[in-house]
Amino acid sequence: MKLRANPGALFTVFVLLLMIGLVATAKQWQYQARLFPWTIGIPTMVLCFLQLGLDMFRSKDADEDVAGMMDLPVDRSVPVAVVIQRAINIFAWILGLYLSIWVIGFILSVPIFLLLYLGIQAGETWKVAVTYMVVMMVFMIGVFEMVLHIPWPPGLINGPQEFILGLVERYLSSLVPI
Length: 178
What we know:
Elements: H1 7-26, H2 31-57, H3 60-66, H4 80-104, H5 106-121, H6 126-147, H7 159-175
């Protein structure tokens, strides 16, 4: 076996470095806040190390034996310009979600992203998109706020997120008198 670098190994190193940064950054957070990044990051790091070993020490004959077995089929009839346009489009949606989380926080960003993505990009009816948005907001607040008590990191503009959490708290306190 010969040590060799290939695009798969470089991608694995990139993901590994990203996960190391994620886990290291989350180490400074409160226990509840770091639970999710560690739950995702640590197993991903282990899998990256395993994949890196496979990528770096696989013999050339082994590559030829399994070529195409695990790959997704590629439609070569799609022009490269269309593929690039679609990739830019999806990265723009992801970047928009990240920027929205940074500016207004998670509680509003994820449901609004879902509404806009389903309504604009996926071509769903607005009725379906709004329904999914409401279900997502109820799920996020119900599970992460009320059950797990996850502290939400504030956005640059924290007023809307605090307003929604305050409404939920007032509503729940009106249901259950203390």
